[in-house]
Design a protein that fits this description.
alpha/beta, Rossmann fold, 2 domains, six-stranded mixed sheet, about 20% strand
């Protein structure tokens, strides 16, 4: 940790021109940092769509940098974009949380926005995409369509709220359902995810929720080959097979980014943590497969409306 801090401050000393007069309430230029690529068709692509939407709505120049992961690369990217005149900078992942909070005071004329992190300074904002409810409705769908009474989740980490939501939703729809859970301990470990899928399949699981944007596409492609069912994750994934993907749990981070930009441009953005869910239209259920009966689709629609009104998910208790 000490070595890392020394490196960070050493880089900061090499960077110049960090302090300018703050300009609040109007977007000048917008930047976005990606830990991976914009062409993954899931998380990265969603972020890039948000950047393009901001460009279109506010008629401003936008910049992006891919594969920005190390502390040194993050710091250099921030300084480069600052020199280009960027005053609204998005870090598309919680990888940027620590650095943004650490150096934001050195760039008082910039607003830093991080996805799924924690905001600790006056010019840092965090975007949180709520996952429990979408997981709940995805779990309901999985349990409703399972023929073996065995459904499964392949998630990256135990703390993901959509995992707990999926389990609760499956149990709400069918108290006798068995929910098998496996974890890759990484967002991008496709080989491990496929290995865990084979394990679930051998256990009799016939509906799988691959809750990791770095591996859900190849897992769903294998599910399709095996003639089983999937619940899509983060993006609308019905394009992978309308008779395979029963529905998708969609997080429109692009819309959340645009809402943040609108507030910033009006001068009404409050720094800190901002939560987005179904009510804001940022989280939603995707297209249902024609295999899912209309009565059940209507049931989900009604439950989503109730959730928006009460902020409470249904329970068997």
């Amino acid at each position: 940790m000490i070595t890392r801090l020394v490196m960070i401050f050493s880089v900061l000393l090499l960077l110049s021109g960090c302090a300018q007069t703050p300009f609040k309430g109007k977007i000048e230029k917008v930047g976005m940092l990606f830990p991976d690529t914009i062409s993954d068709l899931v998380w990265g692509t969603k972020g890039y769509k948000g950047l393009l939407a901001i460009q279109s709505e506010f008629n401003v120049d936008v910049y992006y940098k891919e594969n920005i992961r190390s502390d040194e690369d993050i710091l250099k990217a921030i300084d480069d974009l600052h020199k280009k005149g960027v005053n609204l900078l998005y870090g598309h992942g919680n990888e940027y949380e620590e650095i943004f909070n650490m150096i934001s005071k050195d760039y008082p004329d910039m607003e830093f926005v991080v996805a799924n992190g924690t905001a600790k300074n006056d010019n840092v904002t965090s975007v949180h995409l709520m996952g429990e409810a979408m997981g709940f409705f995805g779990g309901m769908t999985a349990a409703h369509m399972s023929k073996t009474n065995e459904v499964g989740v392949i998630a990256s980490f135990l703390w993901q709220p959509e995992v707990d939501g999926f389990i609760k939703g499956a149990k709400y729809e069918n108290p006798d359902i068995t929910v098998n859970t496996e974890f890759t301990d990484h967002w991008d470990n496709g080989n491990e995810a496929l290995h865990l899928y084979e394990k679930l399949k051998a256990e009799g699981t016939d509906v799988v929720y691959p809750a990791g944007d770095g591996y859900n596409v190849p897992v769903i492609q294998q599910i399709k080959k095996d003639g089983l069912y999937a619940i899509g994750y983060v993006a609308e994934q019905s394009y992978l097979g309308k008779n395979t993907v029963l529905t998708s749990t969609v997080q429109n981070v692009d819309k959340a980014y645009t809402l943040i930009a609108e507030q910033y441009n009006k001068g009404t953005l409050k720094s800190g943590d901002h939560n987005f869910d179904f009510r804001e239209g940022v989280v939603e259920m995707g297209t249902f497969s024609p295999l899912v009966d209309k009565a059940f689709q209507d049931k989900i629609s009604d439950l989503v409306k109730t959730y928006n009104q009460t902020n409470e998910l249904p329970s068997n208790e």
